[in-house]
Amino acid sequence: MSYQTQISSSSGKKSKETMDWIRSWKSTLFLLLEDIPLHLREFVVSISLDGTSATTIIVDSTTGEPLCRPLLYNESCSDALPTVKSIAPANHTVCSGSSTLCKLVSWWNMVDSDKKLATLLHQADWLLWLLHGNLGVTDYNNALKVGYDPELDSYPHWLLAQPYSQFLPSVKAPGTPIGFLKEDVKTKYGFPKDCVVCTGTTDSIAAFLAAQATQPGKAVTSLGSTLAVKLLSTSRIDDARYGVYSHRLDDKWLVGGASNTGGAVLRQIFTDEQLEHLSEQIDPMKTSPLDYYPLPTVGERFPVADPNMAPRLHPRPKSDVAYLHGIFESIARIEANAYGLLKDLGATQVEEVFTAGGGAKNAKWIKIRERVLGLPVSPAIQTQAAYGAALLALKGAQQGVQGV
User: Fold this and answer.
1) Per-residue H/E/C for the chain
2) Residues 228 and 191 in one domain
3) Are residues 149 and 70 in the same domain?
4) Which parts of the sequence belong to the Carbohydrate kinase FGGY C-terminal domain (predicted)?
């Protein structure tokens, strides 16, 4: 279903697709709350969460209900790119069709109805709103791709001058208390009355925080449905030509980007059982002659920003082991190109890579990546982005509730 159809449907009945996304996210959130053992709920003092970067939701600013279907992290609104490029500095992070700002501008251009009562939220913001009830709050990691400047701690003048700037949410540091958990949620699930909800972050930032890589030159590759790299650097690098951007992390910068390659491609071809069985038969020290560019659909963000790039997964050899080996190695080459590009653009040189996400469990793939990267690669002690979100919640709890 097209974006235009989804926008036009927002003035009347919501489309099935819109309701499916929203319902699935909401139901998952509350199922997770239910999964917390009853005897532990009274000890939960703060909550935070992470969400996919640039997954954008335009909501009614009075009710919080979505005005159109959510636009996912890897969707490109190339129709808005010329407009965004005309107002933003050259090669700015927002100058990519998949940026949050392009999605906002595309919505602005397509909706003819009253636009006054609308607010832009990211996936994490909307889910956190369900818990605290204060609409219109985000964090500076999620806000980066709408144009927020984390170095100045403000939206830039060129963005504030636009008519749609009225939809931008207020921005706080990740892990900042927003408000107490809503009364109905506390009552239903048995959380303490002073439990606070804190601003979140993006999934790749949360994965980096979980790995606790604290020195420049340390990097985290998140191998989930996509491949995201984050390198701790003393220099800030932003260049939309290559899908490179920097997130603030205290007094340093997390430089990196996210490729559309990753686990989503593997799951299109193999089952979990096949991946485990075939991986056991791979010799990770042997170079695969196969040269692929594994993508789940058309379009790439980083290290090449090309919305028209087609997946390349052929020729397929007769051996599934050889095929999986070739895909693993091709994804490793994309990762190597990503870190090489960051160095060429002026970031601190990578010295060691930790791995988070589902790919961190595959020992053969780690060995292949170690060979291709020419660097030590190991699973992070904590490999789940959820652990990083929990660290943000801990940070919020330590700050106290003065600002709530």
Assistant:
1) CCHHHHHHHCCCCCCHHHHHHHHHHHHHHHHHHHHCCHHHHCCCCEECCEECCCCEEEEECCCCCECCCCECCCCCCHHHHHHHHHHCCCCCCCCCCCCHHHHHHHHHHHCCCCCCCEEEEEHHHHHHHHHHCCCCEEECCHHHHHCCECCCCECCHHHHCCHHHHHCCEEECCCCEEEECCHHHHHHHCCCCCCEEECCEEHHHHHHHHHCCCCCCEEEEEECCCEEEEEEECCCCCEHHHCEEEEEECCEEEEEEEECCCHHHHHHHCCHHHHHHHHCCCCCCCCCCCCCECCCCCCECCCCCECCCCCECCCCCCCHHHHHHHHHHHHHHHHHHHHHHHHHCCCCCCCEEEEECHHHHCHHHHHHHHHHHCCCEEECCCCCHHHHHHHHHHHHHHHCCCCC
2) no
3) yes
4) 240-394
Range of the domain at 112: 21-204+387-397
One domain, residues 162 and 131: yes
Average confidence (pLDDT) over 21-47: 95
Tell me, yes or no, whether 305 and 336 share the same domain. Answer: yes
60-91 residue pLDDT tens: 999 999 998 999 988 999 999 999 999 999 98
The model's pTM is: 0.79
> Domain check: are 247 and 113 in the same one?
no
